[in-house]
Specification:
13 helices; 7-stranded mixed sheet; alpha+beta
């Protein structure tokens, strides 16, 4: 159960398991190679989106600098262009259209991304770094994980849900964890990782975030209620990898939510049942696996 003494243990299990895959990479990225320390922060969702991240980002960039961000975004954009230059050029020439769709449909997420870009500009150590972290590069770096997915074909994230069997107990609880290896530069993602406790109207929930994707709540737990993780979508026939970017934009404008928005809706749920309903009814822009674990009745769903 995710309550009482078990709550803290389960939270640690979920977060430590997610972090395990990047410990060595993060340690190498931290200046001086002195070891790993994933910083923890609090973000109040009742604050306006232009204000809620300022203190967290300022402290994180003081600790890590902007290099993990510029490294990851540059790798993403290079791979997008290499994979399909025609599609990449479409994104470049229509970036204002994607931004307009977000402004109309998901203004809170767009503002959070803008705040991230502004803070990166403010903390960049050189003009070269500042150019690598322009608004359009940061925005396209967000879009690739929300609309397209350019990670390695067989090397993306994996989730596991276990029901431990304890002698003498009918319900021994549930263990839910996820590795942390998506995208072209998982070492940079490790360096950009933080644990964030969000405060909302139903209490709080904690997510392990790669702050390169500030709106992407993929590995989260609402103590005493449920946990979620995200897995990459499928390849092959009847799946949308390779779909024309013009069609992506058309569906986005029609209100089909990117998966980041699906995850945000799930985590704003107050119970496992509400989160399960939200996932089932979401009709996302691109398919994804949402893995849910029930912290009360030891249930799980994909």
């Amino acid at each position: 159960r995710l309550s009482g003494q078990g709550e803290g243990a389960m939270r640690r299990l979920a977060l430590l398991a997610a972090l395990g895959a990047v410990v060595a990479d993060v340690a190498n990225e931290v200046e001086g190679g002195l070891g790993l320390k994933i910083p923890s922060y609090h973000v109040n969702l009742s604050q306006q989106p232009q204000d809620r991240w300022n203190a967290t980002l300022a402290d994180f960039l003081r600790l890590r600098g902007t290099r993990p961000f510029s490294t990851f975004y540059s790798a993403v954009l290079e791979l997008m262009e290499k994979k399909d230059s025609e599609a990449f050029n479409y994104y470049l020439t229509h970036v204002a259209d994607f931004e307009s769709a977000y402004a109309e449909l998901y203004p809170e997420a767009l503002m959070e991304m803008r705040v991230l870009a502004e803070m990166l500009q403010r903390h960049a150590a050189s003009e070269e770094e500042r150019a690598a972290l322009s608004w359009h590069r940061v925005f396209l770096g967000q879009l690739h994980i929300q609309i397209e997915n350019i990670g390695p074909r067989l090397g993306e994230c994996t989730s596991v849900v276990l029901r431990p069997k304890v002698e003498g107990q009918d319900q021994a609880g549930i263990v839910h964890f996820r590795n942390w290896d998506f995208g072209p530069r998982p070492n940079a993602l490790g360096s950009a990782s933080a644990s964030v406790e969000f405060q909302d109207g139903d209490g709080s929930f904690t997510c392990l975030l790669a702050l390169t994707h500030i709106t992407k709540w993929t590995t989260c737990i609402r103590p005493g209620a449920f946990s979620i993780s995200l897995n990459a979508r499928l390849f092959g026939e009847r799946h949308e990898r390779g779909r024309a970017p013009a069609e992506e934009l058309r569906l986005l404008k029609l209100g089909r939510p990117p998966r980041t928005e699906v995850l945000r809706r799930l985590m704003r749920s107050s119970s496992y049942g509400d989160a399960l309903t939200a996932a089932a009814l979401s009709k996302p822009l691109t398919s994804l696996y949402v893995i849910l674990a029930d912290g009360v009745a030891s249930q799980a769903a994909v």
